[in-house]
Amino acid sequence: MLYEAQARAEMETWQWKMQKAPSFTDRLSKRVQVRINKLIPDKVHNAITATIKQMVRGVLYGSAYTAPRAPEFPSFFELEEAVRRRVDFYKKTAAAEGGVTGAGGILLGLADFPILLGMKLKLLFDIAAFYGFDVNDYKERVYILNIFQLAFSSQQHRQKVFEQIRDWDRKSKDMPEDINAFDWLSFQQEYRDHIDLAKLGQLLPVVGAAVGVVVNYRLVDRLGVTAMNAYRMRVLDK
To answer: How many angstroms separate the CA atoms of 186 and 184, rounded?
Structure first.
């Protein structure tokens, strides 16, 4: 019970961060991002957009991503320790991959986008299974994509997504069964805009490898924290 109280306190702090208004720094970062986007060649934007679009559709439509059969955990603490170990594994893997692709220049740096995106989506499927949710359910896959947006969006968009997942178990009952209703366009635009600034340094010579290691590690860490708190919202209230 003590650990659950600690987890709930962490979740409530995270919820506050998700709902707070965009700060001056948030707005400034957005303006910088717009300028950065203008400097990046259209072919780079198009390649990233196409990759994100196809992978998102793969999540919604098919079985490209699978999750392990989750064991029965004796306590909530043991469950979350297992989740942390899984996140740690993906952080180290993503960091190693970022270092390799970053050292390879622009071509390998561009290859990092789909590789890292795939890792992060697979991690979310694993975490969902650990918390006891069936990722074969289309609505659970939409929830996964919403978690992804919470981790990698502007604060303004994050507020909107957070409102969508509050009381998810009730709201999801009214969701349309048509998977085409998912707004993948906003998803990929927010992700691309949010990620470009951090990943741009990975395309640079000499420093690309170091940037790839640090950025990939931090991005996966942020996703892990976001996913844990998003599932705590549904598990701790039961």
So the answer is: 6
pTM score, two decimals? 0.82
Number of alpha carbons in the 13 Å side-chain half-sphere of residue 106: 4
Q: Check residue 147 and give its pLDDT.
A: 94
CA 140/CA 169 separation, integer angstroms? 10
Residue 63's φ and ψ, nearest 5 degrees, are -115, 35
Residue 24, burial from CB neighbour count under 10 angstroms (0-12, 13-18, 19+): exposed
Q: How many domains does the chain have?
A: 1
Three-state DSSP at 157 gives helix
Does the pLDDT of residue 80 top 90, yes or no?
yes
196 vs 52: CA distance, rounded Å: 13
Q: Reduced to 3 states, what is the DSSP secondary structure of residue 223?
A: helix
Question: Whole-number mean pLDDT of the chain?
Answer: 78
Residue range(s) defining the domain that contains residue 51:
2-235
Q: How many CB atoms lie within 10 A of CB 142?
A: 20
Asked whether the predicted pLDDT for residue 40 surpasses 80, the reply is: no
Residue 234 banded pLDDT, cuts 50, 70, 90:
very high
Buried b (16+ CB within 10 A) or exposed e, 222-237: ebbebbbbbbbbbbee
DSSP secondary structure code for residue 72 in this structure: P
d(CA 67, CA 121): 11
Go through 96-128 and write b for each residue having 16 or more CB atoms within 10 A of its CB, e for each that does not.
Answer: ebbbbbbbbeeebbbbbbbbbbebbbebbbbbb
- Token digits of residue 39: 């400097």
